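can u do me a favor
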């Protein structure tokens, strides 16, 4: 079975260009290259031309309307690091463009087995002549700094002469859209050229740097042909490197130019300039065939351990595997960075990392690529320093508060009401640490890094919360639902804080058992009394329950507000955030996304079935799902509550969200959290997986429309396969049924 996504170009749907730039982007967790048309597009088409390196960002001012004390006045923004995709061809003087002359036929393919994107065009030149153009691109999973662009041209039934011009432009602008709060408002150029040079006839090199963050970016490009060019030259002109080659085209013979591009940056390398040539030499020696083959081999291994199968429902299976592939493309190869809300596919949310990573993506990596899960958590450990600082800025005397949105650890939310106030991110990260530990048993990680994250995040809860009438309350925070802000005792926040506090204590006990506690307590000035206070606060945490409705209220004032009538709201008014002032939204019972229901996904055993069912039905009526982080969670919890049809329907929308552009903004980048969410909906929802300290528990069901489904997962270093069909569910290890083993249980 081959896994791919394909699209034919339709001249009546020009909007699809920007969308396809996202769907056909190439990334490997370090490099992200949007699927831009090499020759460019007319300016009026508003597409986003971009190349990104994970973690490479600039600090820019963020003007606050009033400079109130300690508001964030600066933010980091992901930098567009250069244009290495522009390639223009001229055949017998005629320039190739999709938009000039007779219409062309174009098909694009994302090949998820080869790890490449392919663009095939039939270009109809004047006098009935045809030229076939084929462009293959790859961001290598094996050599993280390598990107390849192969440009092939075939003159069909005629001889001709081609001029190919290839660009390497080190200073480019970021994308901007002042009308959409989810994008940057101004498009600036953040890199300044320090070095720009050419070598021989086909190689160019540039080193640029950002002004504030002082990050250097190095790019080296080289061109190789399968035919001998009649002439070739490379030059620097107006701070751009321009390569030009003249190729005699023989009828029906394919001429291919392979553009090899190496990226380096000073976050990861001391000598960016030197490393460029060193890596280029290695790549040239090994040959591109080696890298294409190793990409295929890498993916064969990946799919063997991560693929999801849904026999009989090819469409959903493909959609889900597309999402899984995008999670792989977004997964960092080191702990200098995390995963942005749009992965490396576009500039939506300016490349910021949110709770999306730990809550929506981590569950996939924990089960499929635990080493990636570990790196993501290590990134949080590495950025504990700025989180401790952030807590101080917000007036806390102890603890760390992770930023709501960030690139290198500092808070970047402009609007604190639905940004910095989302304190639940602390608990979300703590939850991620514990899930990783449960699934891998990696005690060493807890001892060396995880316990410190748990402790400092827990300390913050102790500082922000207070006792009143015997209960521990958390005031003035924003829960996951961004249409309800700055509230008291948000159910989700209190639950995750409770978990966070309990696990700070449990991790300490675990270290006590292993004999590591004394050192830890010394290093962190931790006393037995402090742990006791944390335990007390967790046990006394205010957990709201409404006797009349028999539901958990989202927060202490939520149920006293008027209900928003979603059925009576015109379709054109969604997402509400683009049509209503925030204050208006805050005064209604209306939710952007799963909030209390999200807590039920994380803690399925803390409320009785009836309360969860009542709450689910209550919140469902007032939830817009304007955030892509919502339907997947409604699907999981519907599965757990036995609402099979709902679970299936929400799952479908979540799985196809980007492929079918269901939110209309995939052009700005993929919805990486939702991609993880669709995986969660299947594995934690349909298959009912819960990961606990004692082991894994499945409580699966088979959607009526399916004959079965299966997926592989890793648990404590071993790869297992879960499958279910009409005859029941089973877990296999090495081909043997292991359902009886005590650590993995299936409740039929
Ligand atoms: C959601 C947040 C999310 C962010 C980035 C917002 O629309 O409300 O929960 O973290 O998008 O994906």
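np, heres the sequence
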């Amino acid at each position: 079975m081959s896994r791919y996504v394909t699209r034919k170009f339709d001249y009546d749907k020009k909007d699809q260009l920007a969308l396809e730039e996202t769907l056909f982007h190439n990334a490997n967790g370090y490099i992200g290259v949007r699927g831009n048309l090499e020759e460019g597009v007319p300016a009026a088409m508003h597409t986003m031309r971009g190349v990104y390196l994970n973690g490479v960002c600039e600090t820019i001012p963020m003007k606050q309307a009033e400079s109130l004390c300690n508001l964030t006045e600066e933010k980091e923004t992901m930098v567009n690091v250069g244009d290495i995709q522009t390639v223009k061809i001229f055949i017998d003087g005629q320039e190739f463009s999709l938009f000039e002359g007779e219409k062309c036929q174009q098909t694009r393919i994302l090949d998820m087995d080869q790890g490449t994107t392919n663009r095939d065009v039939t270009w109809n030149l004047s006098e009935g002549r045809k030229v076939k153009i084929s462009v293959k691109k790859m961001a290598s999973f094996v050599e993280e700094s390598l990107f390849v662009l192969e440009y092939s041209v075939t003159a069909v039934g005629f001889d001709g002469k081609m001029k190919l011009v290839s660009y390497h432009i080190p200073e480019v602008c970021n994308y901007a859209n002042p009308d959409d709060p989810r994008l940057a408002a101004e498009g600036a150029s953040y890199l300044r050229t320090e070095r720009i040079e050419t070598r021989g006839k086909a190689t160019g090199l540039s080193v640029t740097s950002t002004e504030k963050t002082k990050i250097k970016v190095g790019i080296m490009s080289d061109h190789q042909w399968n035919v001998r060019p009649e002439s070739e030259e490379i030059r620097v002109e107006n701070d751009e490197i321009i390569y030009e080659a003249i190729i005699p085209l023989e009828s029906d013979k394919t001429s291919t130019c392979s553009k090899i591009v190496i990226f380096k940056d000073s976050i990861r390398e001391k000598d960016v300039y030197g490393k460029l040539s060193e890596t280029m030499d290695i790549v040239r020696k090994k040959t591109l065939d080696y890298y294409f083959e190793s990409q295929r081999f890498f993916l064969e291994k990946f799919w063997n351990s991560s693929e999801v199968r849904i026999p009989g429902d090819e469409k959903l299976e493909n959609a889900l595997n597309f999402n899984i592939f995008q999670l792989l493309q977004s997964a960092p190869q080191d702990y200098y960075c995390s995963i942005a809300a749009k992965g490396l596919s576009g500039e939506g949310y300016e490349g910021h990392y949110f709770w999306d990573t730990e809550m929506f993506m981590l569950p996939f990596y924990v089960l499929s690529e635990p080493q990636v899960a570990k790196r993501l958590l290590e990134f949080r450990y590495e950025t504990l320093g700025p989180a401790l600082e952030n807590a101080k800025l917000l007036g806390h005397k102890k603890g760390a508060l992770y930023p709501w949105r960030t690139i290198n650890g500092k808070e970047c939310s402009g609007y604190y009401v639905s940004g910095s106030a989302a304190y639940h991110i602390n608990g979300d990260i703590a939850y991620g640490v514990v899930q990783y530990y449960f699934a891998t048993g990696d005690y060493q990680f807890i001892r060396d890094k995880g316990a410190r994250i748990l402790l400092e995040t827990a300390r913050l809860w102790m500082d922000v919360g207070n006792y009143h009438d015997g209960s521990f309350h958390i005031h003035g925070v924003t829960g996951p639902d961004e249409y309800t802000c700055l509230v008291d005792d948000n159910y989700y926040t209190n639950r995750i804080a409770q978990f966070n506090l309990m696990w700070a204590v449990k991790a300490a006990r675990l270290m006590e058992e292993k004999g590591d506690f004394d050192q830890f307590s010394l290093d962190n000035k931790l006393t037995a009394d402090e742990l006791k206070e944390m335990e007390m606060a967790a046990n006394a945490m205010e957990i709201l329950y409404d006797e009349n409705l028999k539901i958990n209220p989202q927060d202490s004032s939520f149920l006293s507000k008027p209900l928003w009538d979603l059925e009576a709201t015109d379709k054109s008014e969604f997402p509400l955030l683009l049509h209503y002032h925030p204050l208006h939204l805050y005064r209604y019972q209306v939710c952007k996304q799963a909030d209390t229901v999200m807590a039920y996904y994380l803690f399925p055993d803390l409320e009785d079935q009836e309360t969860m069912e009542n709450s689910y039905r209550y919140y469902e009526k007032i939830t817009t799902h304007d955030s892509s982080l919502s339907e997947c969670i409604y699907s999981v919890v519907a599965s757990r509550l036995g609402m099979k049809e709902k679970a299936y329907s929400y799952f479908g929308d979540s799985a196809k969200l980007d492929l079918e552009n269901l939110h209309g903004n995939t052009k700005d980048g993929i919805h990486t959290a939702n991609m993880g969410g669709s995986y969660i909906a299947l594995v934690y929802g349909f298959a009912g997986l819960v990961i606990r300290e004692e082991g894994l528990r499945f409580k699966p069901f088979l959607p009526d429309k399916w004959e079965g489904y299966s997926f592989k997962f890793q648990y404590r270093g071993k790869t297992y396969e879960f499958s279910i069909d009409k005859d029941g569910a089973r877990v296999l290890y090495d081909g043997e049924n292991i359902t009886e083993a005590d650590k993995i249980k299936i409740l039929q």
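Residues 341 and 672 are 6 Å apart (CA to CA). hope that helps!!
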